[in-house]
Amino acid sequence: MTYDRVTRLLHLLIAAGITAQMLVSLVMVTPRPGRPENAWFELHETLGVVLLIVLAAHWLWSIRLTLASGGPLPLFPWFSPRGLKALGDDAAITAGTLLRGHLPPTEAPRPLPAAFQGLGLLVATFLGATGTVMLVGMGPQGEMAGLLHAIKESHETAGTLMWIYLVAHPSVAVIHQLAGHDTLKRMFRLN
Question: Model-level pTM?
């Protein structure tokens, strides 16, 4: 699969931003009444807003490329019967290939990896959006009532999903790279 320069740049920014956000989340102190935030929390807030802007740019660029190609948005095959069938077929082919001790090819776009990437993009966007809502709605002492507290809980749950994605997605890319598929080289080349 080939990626244009803008997609590669946005992917790099998102990967770096999400990694930074997740690491900062381990050392930040969330404000609560009687307990002030620390500098790591403030960094998490700032990076979160910047990352949401980068994610929005990625969404717009992906939609632009999809409209230009006239095809469906490949990151979300589950929105059409044809996409679901292609996803199911690709999952079956992938399972068979793995059971034979081989990795599926990476040269052509495939529904299964695209759907997994789409899920990661959705989780990241949800994290950025809910984090921004909390930034705007949180009281000066970290007070959160009603709906804002529920948003905070969903943000933390999505954070767990992002940890899983942050381990799985690069691990699969590294496995493909080690198998000679040049996945990382194609995604992060500068030209």
Answer: 0.85
